[in-house]
Amino acid sequence: MQEQIQKATTPGIPGRDDSESLLSLREILQMVFRHKGKIAAFTLVVTAAAAGFFLLRPLTYQAEGMFMVMPFQANDRTNKDLFENSILSHLEYIKSPLVCSRVAAALGRQGIAIENISLLRSVKCKRTPKTSVIRVTASAAEPETAVLIAQTWMDEYMKSVTESKIQKELFNVRNMIKDYHDKSLEMKARAEEMRIQAAKVENDRLITVSRSVDDTELWNKLSEKIDEAELKRLSGIQLKSEQINSEYMLVKNALLAAEQDARSALSHDDFYKQVVVSLQSRASHAAGRDDKAAGATNSSPEVESYIQTLLDARDIVALGQAALLPASRGALKNTALVFAFALFTSCLLAFLKEWLMEEELPAAGKR
Questions:
Q1: Of 152, 136, 169, 134, nearest to 312 (Cα)?
Q2: Using one digit for the tens of pLDDT, what is the confidence trace for 56-85?
Q3: Would you say 118 and 151 are in contact if contact means Cβ atoms under 8 Å apart?
Q4: Buried residues in 216-242 as b, exposed as e (16+ CB within 10 A)
Q5: pLDDT, greater one: 294 or 326
Q6: Are the CB atoms for 125 and 136 separated by under 8 Å?
Q7: 116 φ, ψ to 5°?
Q8: What is the pTM of this model?
Q9: Residue 90 in contact with residue 160, Cβ under 8 Å?
Q10: 199 falls in which pLDDT band (50, 70, 90)?
Q11: Which of 27, 76, 217, 221 has the most CB atoms lying inside 10 A of its own CB?
Q12: In a 3-state reduction of DSSP, which class is residue 124?
């Protein structure tokens, strides 16, 4: 009798009392199992359609290139926060639309027309966890195109880094020119002051020094043969000589040092001016400007060597060339995900249908 009352109060769910507010797992499974045919049919249809789509879609090839951000110092004193900020800054710049525009223009010059938005979507830039390695992955329908996009992305980013480095070094070298120019003026003024002082003591550069004969043994021998009057007369003889004035030597040495410092400052000033001209030439060439005035430079080997040393001191390097990754449609993996999603969705819909029916039946009985 009690079981009949329970069936009457909760249609379709045997053994459940109205006082229970939550459904048990058994009850939920019973509600879903009543629609097992529809669930199976829906899941199979959706899975088959997904499998056909993934198997028939065109194969997408991927190519990958890598960068490595270098620490500021190769020892334990490297500032980890600054190093981390450097990695994140490079990552944001690599995947920026600015680099994408450069790559699209470079590809266009090679006969591959592609829009910036499409190119930006086909390239993924990610950092390998817990490392300073940044990976650039390009996708394309052709393997050659994928490799070309990835390699061009790497090349254009390194060119962009070089251009930024040139502008930075131009700023630094111009400041050094200003410092050496000020120093040369200071040294010239000091040298002029030393010349004036040297001119004042020019007439007194030699002084006369008088000395008497100071040899005890000699005097003892002479005293045995010469009388006292002659010995006194001999002792009055003075030996005179000339030597350079010490004050004049000090002034002259100071003058020579000031002139040497002035020449050194002027030499550095001229050297860094040549560096600026050569850097401007490189910047114009990198920007694609036909600047003949900046390009017509005959820099010395020392200047070119110094500039190359500056430009090589970068905190990011490209690790080799871009390479093609193994191609795969991923049909099995993607189909399995669709199967799981379709099964879950169909079970959820079946449960909701049963639950709504359960709620509607008591309301209809009260009417």
A1: 169
A2: 777 788 999 999 998 876 555 667 888 889
A3: no
A4: eeeeeeeeeeeeeeeeeeeeeeeeeee
A5: 326
A6: yes
A7: -60, -40
A8: 0.61
A9: no
A10: confident
A11: 27
A12: strand
